[in-house]
């Protein structure tokens, strides 16, 4: 239901904005109808119809709706960031965090402020909001109209099959002449049927003209004008407007204006088509063309007692009068676009076709746990399906399947340095690294129903496979080849697939990058135990930052770092791709979409402190593994003294300009705040730091948010 509700909200918004523009345009038409180019007039209306059709419309800073107060974008980062390249968005681990992070073990128990998510669950499940009711009503109307239109079209097509194709050479010669005049190359067939009230053309790829039987016998010149008018409809692709009208009415059936707009645009199509034909025939033929229209109208009225309602003489006698008036006043080149009218059409489309850049507001209804079961931290995080943990206990809190863990840690100074869980793949991954040389291997626990070979083949090509028994476990040694050559021991235990990557070889040089003796692999296999049987305290990585994935993690971080911090709960800075903290260095960091980072800490960052003391940055070579140049200057922003730091990376092969990091750091109420972003080679990326700083400082702190929720 939430998806339908969201679509319905978008429909209401689009229908509302489209209605405003349509009313303005109708007023302009009323007062200046004689001054507006006929073709431009139709194009402008078509833009409105198309806008009615789209549920999702792009945002634009030139949208006219930015003028409305509720769409003010002064406080949005979407306007602040000039360019955020895709290359930045794809990076999840920015290189500009250059401090060495260390951690000590912690054993402090977190006092949990538990929220009973089961309270009133029954009420939530049965409650139906007014939005749900209106969404269902709208969807029902949409389906009824759309399905009804399809049924009517199907019945109409069946009726067309009964029509007789015209093979009269004189008439066919007229068709060919009209095609040549209008530049139509496709074959156009002609059919006759006495039950139709007026002529029309149908078919996008195989055009077919249907003419009432009584019109075949009229004067040759009149018949030529009729056929040319219909061929002109095909040349101009007017059937597209009919399709758009049906879609717009189906989506916005509750809006009376869309029905009126659809009628108006059909009338304008006929006028524009007449103008197009006359532009091809020349101003001298306008009188004869008008007489042909009157002759046809007279025959139709006499034969059917009323004006036809098909596309040729649409709507009413008043519409026919408009057409005759336009024909009588026709001047050459009135159909053609001038540079001015084309520019006006493009500008109009950009102004009204796009939505405003919406201001991102904080949600006053923020709760500990939402209706979808997510707590307030899970709700603002946009994880990529790969979660990293620094302790086994924390990993096991998120894993909902039974796994076994090797209690034995290999010799030669290996350590279990990282833990990962991929919810979408239902897979746990443990990484062991050698402290001395950095060489390591991955130990993967995979519960995927797919065969382990499929898992390995996703990364590389399987080149060899041999059966082998290690530690009493029957499995296979599978060799894969890609940029590296890997040796993997694959086996299954209690329905769980295990893959130990025990050897890694450089493919080009055949040099061994990392290798674990099979004797150590055997010890790991024999030490497999359930998490309840092993001491998980030793499975803690004290040298890595800790990741935050839910409210419990955030509360623990608050206790560990010992200070309150700003926590914007809206999407002003984009989605949070990850939130981390360091209990030793006492800081918390938000990595937002587009590699936009926010750091907060009670102690001055090293380079900030250095610049305060010396007015410059001084580093030993060992302290700048990536940066070739560091520059800084003081700026006054929002009444605060801010250090702007520009760090340039060493040039890589093929680069002419360095990649850069730009950081803004300031001090406020005992806390140092840093906002930074990454600038790839040669890109112009800037930030409206005034609004960004203001939004961060105006945001509530974590303690304030928790207090508000109690």
Give a nutshell description of this structure.
The chain crosses the membrane at residues 12-32, 44-68, 133-154, 240-259. The chain is an alpha+beta fold.
CATH class of the largest domain: Alpha Beta
Q: Cα-atom Rg, whole angstroms? A: 36 Å
What structural category arises from helix and sheet content?
Answer: alpha+beta
Tell me the domain tally. 3
Tell me the span between the first and last alpha carbons.
29 Å
- For the record, the CATH architecture of the largest domain stands as 2-Layer Sandwich
Oligomer: single chain
CATH topology title of the largest domain: Zincin-like
User: What's the total count of β strands?
Assistant: 23
Q: How many alpha or pi helices?
A: 21
Q: What is the fourth-level CATH superfamily of the largest domain?
A: Metalloproteases ("zincins"), catalytic domain
Cα shape? elongated
Low-confidence stretches: 70-127, 304-315, 359-368, 620-625
InterPro entries: Beta-lactam_resp_regulator (IPR052173), Peptidase_M56 (IPR008756)
Keywords: Membrane, Transmembrane, Transmembrane helix
Domain Peptidase M56: 12-327
Organism: Vallitalea longa
Could you characterize what this model shows?
Strand 17 (576-582) and strand 18 (587-592) form a beta hairpin. The model is unreliable at 70-127, 304-315, 359-368 and 620-625 (pLDDT under 50). The strands form four sheets. Strands 5, 7, 8, 9, 10, 11, 12, 13 and 14 form a nine-stranded antiparallel beta sheet that branches. The chain has three domains: 142-336, Zincin-like (2-Layer Sandwich); 391-538, no CATH class; 547-709, 3-Layer(aba) Sandwich (Protein Transport Mog1p, Chain A). It starts with a helix and ends with a helix. The chain is elongated, with a radius of gyration of 36 Å. With 710 residues, it is an alpha+beta fold.
């Amino acid at each position: 239901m939430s998806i339908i509700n969201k679509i319905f909200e978008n429909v209401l918004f689009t229908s509302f904005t489209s209605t405003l523009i349509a009313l303005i345009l109708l007023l302009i038409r009323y007062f200046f109808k004689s001054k507006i180019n006929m073709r431009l007039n139709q194009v402008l209306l078509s833009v409105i119809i198309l806008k009615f059709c789209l549920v999702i419309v792009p945002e634009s800073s030139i949208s006219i709706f930015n003028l409305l107060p509720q769409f003010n974008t002064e406080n949005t980062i979407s306007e602040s960031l000039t360019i955020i390249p895709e290359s930045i968005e794809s990076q999840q681990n920015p290189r500009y965090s250059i401090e060495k992070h260390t951690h000590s073990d912690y054993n402090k128990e977190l006092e949990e402020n538990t929220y009973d998510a089961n309270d009133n669950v029954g009420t939530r499940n049965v409650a139906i909001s007014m939005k749900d009711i209106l969404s269902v009503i709208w969807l029902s109307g949409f389906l009824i109209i759309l399905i009804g239109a399809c049924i009517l079209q199907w019945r109409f097509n069946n009726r067309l099959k009964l029509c007789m194709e015209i093979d009269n050479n004189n008439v066919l010669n007229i068709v060919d002449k009209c095609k040549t005049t209008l530049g139509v190359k496709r074959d156009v067939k002609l059919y006759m049927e006495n039950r139709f009230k007026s002529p029309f053309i149908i078919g996008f790829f195989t055009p077919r003209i249907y003419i009432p039987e009584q019109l075949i016998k009229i004067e040759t010149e009149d018949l030529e004008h009729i056929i040319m008018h219909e061929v002109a409809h095909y040349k101009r692709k007017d059937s597209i407007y009919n399709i758009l009208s049906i879609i717009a009415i189906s989506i916005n059936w509750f809006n009376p204006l869309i029905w009126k707009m659809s009628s108006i645009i059909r009338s304008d199509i006929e006028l524009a088509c007449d103008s197009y034909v006359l532009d091809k025939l020349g101003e001298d033929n306008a009188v004869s063309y008008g007489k042909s229209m009157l002759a046809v109208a007279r025959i139709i009225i006499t034969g059917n007692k009323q004006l036809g309602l098909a596309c040729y003489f649409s709507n009413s006698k008043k519409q026919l009068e408009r057409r005759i008036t336009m024909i009588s006043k026709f001047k050459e080149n009135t159909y053609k676009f001038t540079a001015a009218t084309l520019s006006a059409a493009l500008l109009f489309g950009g102004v009204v076709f796009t939505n405003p850049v919406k201001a991102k507001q904080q949600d006053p209804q923020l709760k500990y746990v939402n209706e979808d079961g997510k707590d307030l931290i899970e709700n603002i995080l946009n994880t990529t399906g790969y979660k990293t943990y620094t302790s086994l206990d924390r990993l096991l809190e998120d894993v909902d399947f039974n796994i076994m863990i090797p209690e034995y840690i290999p010799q030669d100074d290996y350590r279990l340095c990282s833990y990962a869980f991929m919810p979408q793949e239902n897979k746990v991954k443990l990484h062991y690294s050698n402290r001395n040389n950095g060489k390591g291997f991955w130990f993967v626990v995979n519960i995927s129903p797919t065969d382990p070979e499929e898992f390995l083949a996703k990364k590389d090509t399987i080149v060899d496979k041999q059966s082998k028994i290690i530690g009493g476990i029957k499995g296979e040694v599978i060799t894969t080849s890609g940029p590296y050559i890997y040796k993997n021991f694959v086996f299954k235990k209690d329905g769980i697939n295990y893959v130990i990557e025990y050897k890694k070889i450089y493919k080009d040089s055949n040099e061994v990058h990392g290798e674990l003796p099979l004797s150590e692999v055997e010890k790991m296999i024999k030490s497999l135990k359930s998490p309840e049987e092993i001491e998980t305290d030793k499975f803690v990585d004290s040298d890595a930052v800790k990741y935050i994935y839910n409210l419990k993690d955030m509360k623990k971080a608050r206790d560990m770092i010992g200070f309150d911090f700003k926590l914007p709960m809206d999407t002003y800075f984009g989605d949070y791709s990850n939130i981390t903290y360091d209990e030793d260095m006492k800081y918390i960091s938000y990595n937002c979409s587009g590699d936009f980072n926010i750091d907060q800490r009670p102690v001055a960052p090293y380079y900030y402190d250095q610049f305060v003391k010396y007015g410059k940055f001084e580093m030993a070579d060992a302290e700048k593994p990536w940066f070739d140049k560091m520059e800084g200057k003081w700026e006054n922003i929002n009444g605060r003294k801010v250090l702007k730091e520009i760090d340039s990376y060493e040039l890589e092969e093929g680069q002419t300009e360095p990649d850069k990091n730009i950081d803004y750091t300031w001090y406020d109420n005992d806390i140092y705040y840093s906002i930074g972003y990454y600038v790839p080679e040669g890109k112009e990326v800037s930030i409206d730091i005034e609004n960004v700083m203001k939004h961060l400082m105006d945001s509530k702190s974590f303690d304030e948010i928790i207090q508000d929720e109690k």
